[in-house]
Amino acid sequence: MMKHVLIAWICCFFFTGILRAQDFSNKGKEFWLVFPPHQASNNSFANLSVYLTSDKNSSGVITYNGFVQTFTVVANQTTEVVLNRAASYINGSESANYYPLANQNKIVSNKGIKVSVDAGQPAVVAYAHMFAGARSAASLILPTPVLGRTYYTMSWNQTTNALQSGELARSQFSVIATEDNTSIRVSIKRNGNALPTPITVDLPKAGDVYQYQDSFDISGSFIESIASGGNPCKKIAVFSGSSSLAISTTLTGTGCTGSSIDPLYQQCYPINSWGKKFGLVPFRGKNRMNYRIIASEDNTTILTNGANPTILNKGVPLTIFTDQAIPIGSKPPFLVEADKPISIAQFSLTQSCDLGVGDPDMIFLNPVEQSISDITVFLSPKQAITDQNINIFIKNTGTAISSFKINGVAPTNAFVPIGTTGFSYLQERFTVSAASSSSIRLTSDSGFNAICYGFGSAESYGYSAGTNVIDLNPPITISNDFSGSNVSYSATCSNTPFKVNLSLSYKPVQIKVDFLGATGLSQGTSPFTYIVPTTGNGYDSTYDLNGKTYYVYRIPQTYAFNTPGTYPIKITTTATTIQTDGCSNTNEQEITDNVVVNAPPSASFSFVSNGCIN
Hints:
By secondary structure, this protein is mostly beta strands. 4% of the residues lie in helices and 45% in strands. Strands 22, 23, 24, 25, 26, 27 and 28 form a seven-stranded antiparallel beta sheet that branches.
């Protein structure tokens, strides 16, 4: 019997080690996205396609504003679903804005676009792509479980506010409610200047959208989900960019001649998933790229290629121009490091400001801490993309580079080391049929970061190929009773006893753990209230992160689930003073998460024994 328990523990312990790639990546079974305003091209507005892929056959539905569209996915191929434009598109006239004040709280009902995988079907990866002649933009779409409650927006300086075909050129962001009774608070920044009073908005139904536009750059605006009317804060999806702009070698647009009216469109990553180390690989065939950095905390030190330290405060964009004229292909990449979590966006420029074809685009980069090892992406010719590329950023260690494959074979081009950083990069060009998109599978035995992008005449699109979206300082973690070890995320195996750990920056007097009536709970009491002892420390351990001390509380209750699945957990803490770590500014804080329970893998061996021990 002991042998069976030991084997089960070994399997489960090994299995949880790979859960990050399976359950905390951009692969999922539910997604929310939006089709925001943009200016037309020759009076022709763009359409929006959703691209879906998976390593297994799957199926599902896309619902929005009363429309339902089904999809099927063939393993390692991409499926394109073109949405009904009239039903999904949000007009600029529907948007909230700063003036007049009555418009600050406008919302758009039921235009959030929901992607759902059919029950029992495997998870998928989703991307969005808006396209028209000389108009193109794309984004990776994050699944609902990895969404967060706090975000910063990113865009570019809005050098034009022209009106074209009924749409104004505006900096913008979109917030989508993923649950009913969602409330948000938005602290707007306009060209770096914070408005004196935050805007509070209620989104009554899942799928409702707060679409905000401004004539000034909204980069660094802070968006948070808040508790309101007895409802806790809910997860939200956030997108930011612009309906139309030009990007030059200066923020004022005077660095080069020419203009463009291109949209920027990217889904924002929640702040708790930001990282500290990023690789910036230049666009193939270009002389220039701009990039922006936003810090999540004050007094963040930024290093570029290990030098040139810059101190950055939270929510203040740092803009860097890499416009030195050097030969095509020889532009060195950058390794950007920080001592606290940051977010980085990479920008391509207006066509007349750089070599070759293409126009402005913005791509949110993923940190090294959130790398992936297997992803299928799409490359699209729409609307007139002729130059298709993928950039890879990877560690030099082990067999990471030698095992890297594109559609099962080694890349055509060679990886190039980045000085003494310990990383290398690859720029690979692809030929894509003018009639259809292409599916590209990227694999390695180690993690890598990648972006996909395409250029055409006065047109471009780009997006992050894939990412893990792990809370890099999760408040809720799991400790396995078999091993006593912790995993830095909330996942376990079925029929495996575990305890819940909670990390807080304050000392509560009471902690209540509630699995919300989960039917698969086979061991443990729920809800369970833990009165923190007043003698001794009361906490299990401490650690320091980004200048803040965290106290780790191990709840004295053993749990187990007998059925695989995803189980919501709600933890309510009570302190003697007002705290702000949770969803309200009171002494009672609510923290929610999901505990992912997987079936342990079956042992692929057997043995016959006569019962004797030799």
